[in-house]
């Protein structure tokens, strides 16, 4: 690479030589390489069309890098800029070699880069131990980029990513920021094996990269390095629910999806979604639970070793795991990988047995006979509680790609049992209303038979099934009420998410009903918010910190008086004299958003000031969200225009689109603005990962069939190939919302009345 002398040149491999070159030498090199260089485009300091004052010299350096091993072209990377770095190293537990590792940023960010480096040093040896394959390159750098379309990218030896995922300030970023940095860093390091050492044959096998990086990076290895975060349990909230949410839509796709033919690049861009990442990771987690994690990881290691520096397809992975487990993994997993969707199990209690039947789940609850043909291989994981209170799980029961199975269970109607123990399966379970109430009662017991994972799974099942018409929303609400004393962050996070979704979809129902939903949310979360308060103790566990943040967030957004008065007081200090010391980093989003929501221009300007000069990326994200929560028409208009003002990087449009859609006051305006700005959006984001998500989030919170018709009308005749998946998934979401309201509006009203939230 020929670059200005004062800049830093980076590539996948280490530098082997670096020397100053004169203009004449440069010309010679370029001619030799048959490159025609237009030097007028190389004027100092010219970026993004803006000319900045520059002190760039006219001295040039030629840097040569070592040759990479055999590598897929999408992993080739080089970078050049005014970077500074911090350095560490690790000693390979397999080879004893010392591998240097750096994190590069532009100078203003380097003081927040230490943590990303520490995480890399901590996780890398773990991967080597687990896979028994050494990291093969002579170095592993991370470059933090100030504008980046995706979250991060795993280029071999030179990981790149955006500031919000890599920068962390121990005083100012908070636990959410810390977990994000660790999770993303670990995910990208996992790719150094999954994707880089053994790579996919073609993009239809993308899941082999992303599902593994998700499962290994964000669960298995993260849990070993940071057990206090309970990442393995959080997987259910973070990935399993997300996977099932998307895969319940008609517009979903199989994990392994054919990608050929016309517009193939557009199609490839769109499969970097919850199916490839989260559903892929979920089915691997299920398989790992079926055969045992040691056997699973052994099989993965066999697979990796057989495909070092070469391409692989799904079957190769199954061959490796079949070898370690002695089971025919390909036939067990076939439908999970090759078919769209997942099953819902319905349970009937008959005498001394349970009859369990599988059908395709759809978020609209209406699969046709044709759509309901797939029969999956399902581990039933029957958890039983004996009369003596002893808990056992039968791990050998399966629905072996058959429609129905009957399993023995003594006095089934009065037995204490639950399917999908530890929520390891990729399916939902529909129980009768009576059984759901019994499960809720058991789940609510302190030290009851149901684990944290069981309780989180129950909440997800109850609400998702209600939303799709397999159950009633009142059943979910009763379960939420039964679990109100649950001490864990994850159960509370699941409940809060589903109640927020109810409040959001019910946005155009009677004010009295909406107020009643908020009263219920305040009733559940208000006391916890007040008990835990806004101050964080230095010995608080991660679980307690996150519980506090979620309780305060729900209580404030549902209008709890005490919580809102605290918000006002604490934001007041920031507004008056720039003192943000009363706002803990993990409460930034809530405090900013509620201050703007309940405030006026002064609050808005204060948050805008934070956006323009953020202390950390977390501050900036919190500010972006908050600007979207104003209730004032004029300010709302400003926010809607803001992304197009030149003050917002393209990587950040997403925050505005999703937050404006989340604000009922901004929801329709967001969609109208998207229609008005469509030409600009499709031009500016052509080829970006984010276009599909931007389009989808601009309308997917709407909840009537008329809205869905309007969206369809608008895109009719337009070329939607770059975001066809996002468009149809968004439309499915709107129609599912509409059906949910139509089906359960009366049910919800009756429940609120019966429980004294509605007069
Ligand atoms: Zn990835």
From TrEMBL:
InterPro entries: Aminopeptidase_N-like_N_sf, ERAP1-like_C_dom, M1_APN-typ, Peptidase_M1, Peptidase_M1_aminopeptidases, Peptidase_M1_dom, Peptidase_M4/M1_CTD_sf. The keyword Cytoplasm does not apply. Its cofactor is Zn(2+). It is an enzyme of class 3 (hydrolase). Zn(2+) binds at residues 187, 191, 210. Gene3D superfamilies: 1.25.50.20, 2.60.40.1910, Neutral Protease Domain 2, tricorn interacting facor f3 domain. Keywords: Aminopeptidase, Hydrolase, Metal-binding, Metalloprotease, Protease, Zinc. The record marks 277 as: Transition state stabilizer. Its EC number is 3.4.11.-. GO terms for cellular component: cytoplasm; extracellular space; membrane. GO terms for biological process: peptide catabolic process; proteolysis. Residues 417-736 form the ERAP1-like C-terminal domain. Binds 1 zinc ion per subunit. The keyword Hydrolase applies. It holds the Pfam family Peptidase_M1. Residues 115-336 form the Peptidase M1 membrane alanine aminopeptidase domain. The active site is at 188 (proton acceptor). GO terms for molecular function: metalloaminopeptidase activity; peptide binding; zinc ion binding. Belongs to the peptidase M1 family. This is Aminopeptidase. It comes from Pseudozyma flocculosa PF-1. The lineage of its organism: Eukaryota, Fungi, Dikarya, Basidiomycota, Ustilaginomycotina.
């Amino acid at each position: 690479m020929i670059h200005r002398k004062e800049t830093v040149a980076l590539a996948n491999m280490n530098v082997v030589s670096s020397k100053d070159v004169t203009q004449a030498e440069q010309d010679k090199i370029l001619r030799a390489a048959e490159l025609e260089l237009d030097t007028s485009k190389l004027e100092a300091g010219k970026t993004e069309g803006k000319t900045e004052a520059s002190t760039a010299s006219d001295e040039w350096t030629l840097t040569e890098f070592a040759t990479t091993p055999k590598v897929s072209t999408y992993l080739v990377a080089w970078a050049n800029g005014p970077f500074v770095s911090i350095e560490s190293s690790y000693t390979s537990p397999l080879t004893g070699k010392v591998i240097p590792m750096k994190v590069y940023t532009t100078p203003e960010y380097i003081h927040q880069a230490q943590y990303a480096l520490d995480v890399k040093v901590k996780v890398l040896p773990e991967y080597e131990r687990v896979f028994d394959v050494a990291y093969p390159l002579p170095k592993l750098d991370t470059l933090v980029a100030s504008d980046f379309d995706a979250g991060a990218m795993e280029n071999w030896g030179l990981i790149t990513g955006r500031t919000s995922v890599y920068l962390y300030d121990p005083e100012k970023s908070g636990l959410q920021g810390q977990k994000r940095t660790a999770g993303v860093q670990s995910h990208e390091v996992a790719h150094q094996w999954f994707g880089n050492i053994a790579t996919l044959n073609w993009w239809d096998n993308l899941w082999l990269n992303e599902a593994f990086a998700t499962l290994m990076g964000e669960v298995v290895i993260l849990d070993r390095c940071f057990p206090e975060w309970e990442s393995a349990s959080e997987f259910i909230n973070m990935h399993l629910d997300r996977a099932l949410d998307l895969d319940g839509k008609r517009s979903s796709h199989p994990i392994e999806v054919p990608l050929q033919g016309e517009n193939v690049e557009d199609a490839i861009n769109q499969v970097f979604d919850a199916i490839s990442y989260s559903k892929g990771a979920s089915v691997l987690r299920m398989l790992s639970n079926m055969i045992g994690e040691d056997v699973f990881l052994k099989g993965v290691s066999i697979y990796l070793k057989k495909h070092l520096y070469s391409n692989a397809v799904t079957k190769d992975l199954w061959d490796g795991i079949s070898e370690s487990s002695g089971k025919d993994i390909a036939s067990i997993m076939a439908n999970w990988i090759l078919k769209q969707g997942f099953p819902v199990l319905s349970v009937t209690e008959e005498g001394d047995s349970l009859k369990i039947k599988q059908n395709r789940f759809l978020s609209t609850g209406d699969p046709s006979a044709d759509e309901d043909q797939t029969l999956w291989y399902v581990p039933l994981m029957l958890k039983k509680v004996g009369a003596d209170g002893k808990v056992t799980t039968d791990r050998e029961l399966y629905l072996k790609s058959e429609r129905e199975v009957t399993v023995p269970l003594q006095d089934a109607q009065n037995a204490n049992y639950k399917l999908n123990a530890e929520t390891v399966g990729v399916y939902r379970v529909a129980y009768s209303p009576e059984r759901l109430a019994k499960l809720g009662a058991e789940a609510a017991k302190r030290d009851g038979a149901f684990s944290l994972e069981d309780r989180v799974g129950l909440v997800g099942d109850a609400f998702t099934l209600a939303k799709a018409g397999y159950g009633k929303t009142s059943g979910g609400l009763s379960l939420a009420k039964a679990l109100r004393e649950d001490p864990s962050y994850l159960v509370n996070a699941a409940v809060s998410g589903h109640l927020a979704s109810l409040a959001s979809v019910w946005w155009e129902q009677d004010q009295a009903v909406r107020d009643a939903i908020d009263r219920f949310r305040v009733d559940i979360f208000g006391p916890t918010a007040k008990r835990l308060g806004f101050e964080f103790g230095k010995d608080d566990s991660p679980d307690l910190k996150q519980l506090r943040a979620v309780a305060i967030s729900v209580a404030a957004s549902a209008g709890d008086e005490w919580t809102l008065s605290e918000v006002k007081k604490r934001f007041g200090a920031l507004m008056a004299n720039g003192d943000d010391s009363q706002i803990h980093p993990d409460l930034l989003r809530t405090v900013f958003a509620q201050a703007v929501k309940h405030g006026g221009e002064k609050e808005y300007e204060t948050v805008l000031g934070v956006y323009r000069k953020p202390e950390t990326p977390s501050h900036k994200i919190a500010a972006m969200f908050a600007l979207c929560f104003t209730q004032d028409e004029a300010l709302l208009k400003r926010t809607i225009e803001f992304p197009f003002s030149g003050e917002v990087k393209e990587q950040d449009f997403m925050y505005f689109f999703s937050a404006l859609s989340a604000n009922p006051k901004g929801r329709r305006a967001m969609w109208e603005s998207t229609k008005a700005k469509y030409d600009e959006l499709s031009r500016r984001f052509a080829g970006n990962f984010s276009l599909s998500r931007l389009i989808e989030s601009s309308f997917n919170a709407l909840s009537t069939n008329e809205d869905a018709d309007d969206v369809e009308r608008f895109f009719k005749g337009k070329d939607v190939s770059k975001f066809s998946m996002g468009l149809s998934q968004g439309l499915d979401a709107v129609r599912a919302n509409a059906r949910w309201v139509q089906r359960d509006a009366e049910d919800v009203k009756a429940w609120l009345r019966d429980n004294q939230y509605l007069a």
